[in-house]
Amino acid sequence: MDFQLADEHRMVQATVREFARQEILPRAAALDHTPVFPSEIIQKAAALGLMGMVIPEAYGGAGMDPVSYVVAQEELARASAGLQTIITVNNSLVCDPIFHFGTEDQKRRYLPRLSSGASLGCYCLTEPAYGSDAMSLRTDARREADQWILRGTKAFVTNAVEADVCIVYARTGPEPGARGISAFIVEKGFPGISVGKVEKKLGIKCSSTAEIVLDGCRVPASNLLGEPGSGGKIALTTLDGGRLGIAAQAVGIARAALEEATAYAAGRRQFGRSIGEFQAIQWMLADMATRTDAARLLMLRAAYLRQQGTRYTREASMAKLFASETAMWVTHKAVQIFGGYGYIQDYPVERYFRDAKITEIYEGTSEIQRIVIARNLLEGHA
Amino acid sequence: MNIIVCIKQVPDTEAPIRIKADGSGIDDTGLTLVMNYYDEHATEAGLRLREQFGGTVTLVSVGAERVKEALRTGLAMGADDALLVSDPALAGADHLGIARVLAAVIRTLPHDVVICGKLSTDDNAATVGAALAEYLSLPQATAIAHLDVDGGGAGAVVHREVEGGVEVLAVPFPAVLTVERSLNEPRYPSLPGIMKARRKEIKTVTLEHLGLDAADVGMAAARATLVRLSPPPARKAGRIVEGDAAQAVSAIISFLKDEAKVLS
To answer: Gene3D superfamilies given for it (chain B) (predicted)?
Structure first.
C-alpha cells in the first residue's frame, strides 16, 4: 500500500497548480462577479493538454491516466470551480464517449479539435421534464435516408453557448426507458440546432448553462455514436467518468475553503488572541480537513480503479457523493469562521459556498448517487 | 545548433526554510525543491534557439539523485536530453568546484552555446556561469536581458541591463550566456511533455567517468567554507497609530522623519 502520488502525478499536480496560480487565480473573483467565458485561459489550458487529458496522443490528447486527470481537476477547481466545469465537461462528457464508443472516423474528426481547444463540447442529456429520470427522455430521432432528424429540447447544458460539438441523447426506437435511446454527435453548424434560454445561476458563473433546442435538426447517419439503442449505456458509462471530475471539483472547492479559513483563523484576532486559538474554531478546522482528505482519498481510489480497468461505478458514486457533501459542509463552515467577512464578496469563501452547491446536483444528485451505490451493493443478493 | 543548458535544483522560494540546529545548512526534509527560476528562463532560451536553428537542447546538472526531478521539469518543457553528475565526493564542493565539474561534462558534449541562469535563488552567488566560461575558455555574456542570435548562428548580440542604461555586447559562438528573468517567459511543461520526460532515461555520471579527482573539485578544493547559516531576524510587529485622522497623520509624519528617517 503506497499513499504517495507517483512522480508523474506530482509533476502534473505541480504544473497545473502553477498554471492555476498564475493564470486563473488572479481572475477567479472577476469571472464570478462579471461572468464572461474565459476563452483566453481555455486556450492556454488546451496548449498544456488539459482539454483532452486522457485521450491518447494519436488523437491529439495528452495521453494521461485517470489519476492525473483528477489531480489536475482538483487544482483547477481550487482556483475556479466555474472554469474547471468548462474543462471537465469537455474531457469527461464529450471526449470520453467519443473515444470509447466512436468509430475511427468519428475519433479522427472530433478528438483532435476538442483536445486542442479549436472546438468545445457540451453534453445534452437532461430535458426540462426529465432530470434524475433521464432515461425517460422524450427528444425524438427519426431516420430519413442517410440522416437522423432530431426534435426536442435539452436543459441545463453546460457550455451550451460556446460549444460547437454536442453529444445529444434522443429516442430512436419504441422500447421504453434506456433501450430506446441513442447517442449522436451533433455540430452546432448542422441545420435545426440552436441555443435556447440561457440560465442565471447561483455559482460556477463563468461557465454557460443553457437550453439546446433541436427543431428538426439534421444529423448525418455517420454521426450516430455507438449502436442504435445503446445511448442509455453510453450515458451511464460516461457519467461514471464524469463523476470523477465532479468529485475532483468538490475536493478542489473544499480545499480552497479550508486553506482560506485556516489562514484567516490564524490571522484574525478577537478577545486579544487569534481566533484559531479557540477550540470552537479548531474543531471546525479539524473536521474540515479530515472530511476533505477523506473525500480526496475516495476520489483517488475511484480514479485508480478506472486506471486498472475494473468496474468503478460504485466507487465513482461514493467519491462524488461524499466529496460534494463535503464541499457543501466545508464551505459552510468556512463562511462561519470568516463571520461577516465570509458573507461579503471581498473575500472568496462566499463564492466557494455558492459554487459547492452544484456538485450535489449535477451529473446525478446525491439522492441518485445513493441509489447507484445501494443497487450496486444489493446486486447479486437478489 | 548544439545547445547546453545548466540547471540547479533549489528550495521553492515559497517554501518555509528551516536551518539545521548546528547551522551547517538547510534542513531539506519535506522541503519542496524546484528548478531554479533563472534556469527555467535559460531552458526557455535554449528551446527558442532550437526552434529557430534546429538542433538539440541538452540539460546538465550537478547534485544528488533527486536533482533528476528538476531535470525532468526541463525535459517536460521540451529539452531533448539530460545528464546528471552525481557523486558523494562532491558534498561540500564550492561554486568553482561545481563550475569545473560542469566544464568537464560540457567538454564531452558538442556545444555551440552554453546557457545558465544568472544566479540561483538559494545562495545568490552568480558565480558558476562566469567561472564555467573561464574553465571552458569561452567568451561570456552575463545577466543578459535580450538575445539576438545572427542568422547563421555564428554569434549573438545581447543586451545587459546595467545601472542607468543598456549595454550591448557581441559574442561569437561557442559562448557561455547567463540570463536574466526578463529575457523571456518560460513555457509551462505540457502534459504530454511530462509523460515523455518520465520515460526518458537520465544518464548519471560520476567524477571517475569524467576523469576528475575529488581532491580537485570536492570539499578539499573548496576555497571558501561555510561557517554558519542563520535565519534572518524575525520581523518586528507593526505599530498601530491610534487617535483621530489629524493626530494620526502628524504622528506618522514625525515617525517617518525622526525614527525611520525617510522624510526630512
So the answer is: HUPs
